[in-house]
Design a protein that fits this description.
11 helices, seven-stranded mixed beta sheet, alpha/beta, about 15% strand, two-stranded antiparallel sheet
């Protein structure tokens, strides 16, 4: 046991019965050994550090604690359906393998994330499938000293999809609408939004890293009303995981999808073609754009909302250009 760690001492008589404190052997008292030769002192760990020192299996301990709490009902779910225990125990670990080993994500500028209180993270969107939003949420969780969760705002298609919709709710996502965004921001949460929507995530490979229209600036008005900073986020690497070279529109309409992508490998190679390319990613959190100087009525002024919307979009585009200028190739970064 390392110096300075605390331990609980179990005192047993030689016959196995509990002992009292009368026979305790003081440290540095060699004569004390004769006081109660029938007592054995067994140190037991009573802290996380002691558990590690004795070879405790932390992931297994967390899993067992999670299962016990599920059986006893001792866990919390917020009004949006977010289940942090389930997210931390079952959802994030497999995604972290993708984050660390497949995309080898490097996060930059995490110091721009607030230590506490609300903030709106606004990011570019790409990659055919919205994996970039998941990796951004994981980057926030892994890089923030408080291990904060990013509450992502998702399209209604996500919540209409069986199983996926339930999992999205339980992992902290909610519908991309201003009332929900404002409630989360006022509650001090980190909220993530991808204003390009399907126009961004489904854009062709030829338009990579060119930001699409940000819509009418709903995210800007939500940030103004809540008085929270906006953090621009630039994701480099996601554009190349599924190089989209075509779109089978009739099939997309039949399936109720915004697009049905054609890549060099999909649908030609079937399920194998759905494996994303192992590109090297960089996620940069930019300097906060403050909104607390805006008066409340500015949220209803279309011109001021548009200007803030455009300021955030330009900040993200410039971050992307700078990151791309430093990149050697898509696989090594």
């Amino acid at each position: 046991m390392t110096s300075g760690s605390s331990a609980q001492v179990i005192r047993l008589h030689r016959d196995g019965s509990p002992g009292g404190d009368s026979g305790r052997v003081a440290a540095g008292d060699p004569d004390g050994a004769d006081r109660d030769a029938s007592v054995v002192e067994l140190p037991t760990p009573d802290s996380a550090a002691d558990s590690d020192a004795t070879g405790g299996d932390e992931p297994l301990d967390r899993l067992l604690t999670f299962l016990r709490n599920r059986l006893t009902g001792d866990y919390e779910v917020d009004e949006f359906g977010f289940d942090p225990a389930l997210t931390d125990t079952l959802v994030l670990p497999p995604l972290k393998l993708l984050y660390d080993k497949w995309f080898r994500v490097g996060a930059v500028g995490a110091g721009n994330l607030p230590a506490d209180g609300g903030a709106l993270l606004v990011a570019n969107h790409s990659g055919v499938l919205p994996i970039d939003s998941i990796m951004t949420a994981l980057a926030v969780h892994e890089q923030h000293p408080q291990r904060r969760h990013l509450r992502m705002l998702g399209a209604d298609l996500v919540f209409k999809t069986p199983v996926l919709g339930t999992l999205a709710r339980k992992s902290g996502q909610t519908l991309a609408c201003n009332p929900d965004a404002e409630r989360l921001l006022r509650a001090g949460e980190l909220v993530g939004v991808w204003p390009e929507g399907f126009k961004g995530v489904g854009k062709p490979f030829s338009a990579r890293y060119k930001l699409q229209r940000f819509g009418r600036g709903g995210f800007a008005s939500a940030a103004i009303r809540a008085g929270v900073p906006i953090i621009p986020v630039a994701v480099v690497g996601a554009e190349e995981i599924y190089p989209k070279i075509g779109d089978i529109k009739p099939l997309a309409r039949l399936l109720g999808l915004p697009y049905f992508p054609v890549t060099p490998f999909f649908p030609l190679l079937g399920p194998l073609g759905a494996v994303p390319l192992p590109t090297k990613w960089t996620i940069e959190f930019g300097e906060p754009i403050l909104t607390d100087a805006y008066e409340p009525e500015a949220a209803d002024d279309p011109m001021r909302v548009f200007n803030l919307n455009d300021q955030v979009r330009e900040a993200i585009q410039q971050m992307l250009y700078r990151r791309l200028a430093r990149r050697r190739n898509i696989f090594s970064g």
